[in-house]
Design brief:
This protein is mainly α. Helices cover 64% and strands 0% of the residues. It has 11 helices and no strands. Mean pLDDT is 78; it is low at 1-58.
């Protein structure tokens, strides 16, 4: 399974749901209340959206996939056990943590957190609007293909922010996912064979040098 799904691949999947019969000039758009967020209708906004996404969507997971295959040092691996934040700041740590989460069928939580982290750094209003809609469609909407552990109160708060998306609209949701991973997934990761085997291999490498 590839390490990440790029923005281009994500948009290609969504494009498959956009096809619909052309509408006559002036005819109301079907399901107009969705503002085309779900890709349920054929319109110029959707066409532009896909093209912009392919040019602009770039996440930290893409950087992880493109990173050189350099094994982490023993010091780096040990630092992950001392701080969850240090694990999340490390490209190698994210790769290993995601491998573990995949084994627990919960990697969507990490990808969602990373997408929200990238969105918070964005200042271009057009890109903020685009990326916030992508996150909503893929992780928050009741029709989303991904599964993240958000409670109904947080989801409702996001729904109320849809009319005016901002780079901070997922801040509470991101915190909820961070807390869940820190409290539940992180301790299990440190006790998993994924982490323990890596730690043992780094220690052997140090002894051999």
């Amino acid at each position: 399974m590839p390490l990440s799904v790029s923005g281009v691949e994500m948009r290609k999947r969504q494009a498959a749901h956009i096809e619909a019969p052309p509408r006559a000039p002036g005819q109301p758009r079907p399901n107009a209340c969705c503002l085309c967020w779900c890709g349920c209708c054929k319109c110029l906004w959707n066409d532009d959206r896909i093209e912009r996404s392919e040019r602009q969507t770039c996440t930290k997971m893409d950087s992880i996939e493109a990173a050189d295959e350099q094994p982490p040092t023993l010091e780096e691996v040990l630092s992950w056990s001392r701080s969850f934040d240090m694990l999340l700041r490390s490209l190698e740590g994210l790769k290993v943590f995601r491998e573990f989460l995949r084994s627990e069928y919960s990697e969507d939580n990490l990808v969602f957190w990373l997408l929200c982290e990238e969105l918070k750094k964005e200042t271009n209003p057009t890109v903020v609007d685009e990326k916030s809609r992508i996150i909503y469609e893929d992780y928050v909407s009741i029709l989303s293909p991904k599964e993240v552990s958000l409670d109904s109160r947080v989801r409702e708060g996001i729904n109320q922010s849809l009319d005016e998306p901002s780079n901070l609209m997922y801040e509470e949701a991101q915190l909820q996912i961070y807390t869940l991973m820190h409290r539940d997934s992180f301790p299990r990761f440190l006790n998993s064979s994924v982490y323990r085997d890596l730690l043992a291999s780094r220690r052997r490498a140090c002894l051999d040098t």
